[in-house]
Amino acid sequence: MVIKVGSGEIDDLSTLTVLDKESLLRELRARYKKGIIYTYIGDVLIAINPFKQLNIYEKQQHDLYKYVQYRNQLVPHLFWIADQAYRKLCLSKTSQCIAVSGESGAGKTESTKLIVSHIIHCSGDAGDRELQNRIIETSPLLEAFGNAQTCMNQNSSRFGKYLQLDFTDTGRIIGAKVYEYLLEKSRVVQHGPGERTFHFFYYLFAGLEKETLEYFYLDDPETYRILKDPCGGKVFPDRSDVEYCRQMFNTQKEIMQRLGFTKEDINMVFTILSAILHLTNIRFSHDDETDGVYIEDEYPLEV
């Protein structure tokens, strides 16, 4: 059977007669128009972000892509990558690595969470459910502190992440470690029009009660330089944004508690965030007499 290039029916692009940019893009475009977001190039999986929810990550798919012997048995899927890594781990007893790369908004963060969920599905049982949930929940907690709104993506990762999963010799998952690197610290100082600083600063103002905000000497969010919109707009453009940030605040606080943060730990996190807000409000002016600088208003420094 001859399959025409550009038909959207080629699951593995490495089988194309001509492997040039135009042929690859033509086939990917045709598949995307058919609602097919995954395509193989050999052992590499290409994913195109559909920017909508899909029902292809349910228990049915988890079960279907568990211990797959031959790749061409099933249509291309992210779970196949996860299944292959787990099977090779169990068979070879050596560490495996999955590299997830792409531009901002490509879907790297969501893909990583789905990969982890499938590996956990393959390796665990009902008794591991609490551990599994804690591992999965590390991602949204890190996102709250390391993700921000950009012009291209409402939830863009502004840091790199290396997630290490640990297993027994029998392939049962027993824990995880997360290493963060390349954090875009400059975003705390300044962000461009249409962008925001890290999510949790907004969650803080939406989630804390008025009395608690006063305890941290926090005023209206517009008071703080790093939260201000460069174009002069409101920090929270509408009520729905406030409600969403309040909901996310409560969610992140619950996750911290489930991961073992004490009340004192959580309070310290809020204290540090508040201190950053006050610290970045300190303004310096030139002192003509000493040719140095002085602080215009020492209140933020005192706080």
From TrEMBL:
Localisation per UniProt entry: Cell projection; Cytoplasm, Cytoskeleton
A single GO BP: regulation of actin filament length
Cellular component aspect of the GO annotation: cell projection; myosin complex
Any Pfam family the entry gives: Myosin_head
Binding site for ATP: G102, E103, S104, G105, A106, G107, K108, T109
Gene Ontology molecular function, alphabetical: actin binding; ATP binding; microfilament motor activity; protein serine/threonine kinase activity
SUPFAM superfamilies: P-loop containing nucleoside triphosphate hydrolases
Sequence similarity: Belongs to the TRAFAC class myosin-kinesin ATPase superfamily. Myosin family.
PANTHER family in UniProt: AGAP011099-PA, MYOSIN MOTOR DOMAIN-CONTAINING PROTEIN
Identification of the protein by name: Myosin motor domain-containing protein
Species of the source: Rotaria magnacalcarata
Lineage, highest ranks first: Eukaryota, Metazoa, Spiralia, Gnathifera, Rotifera
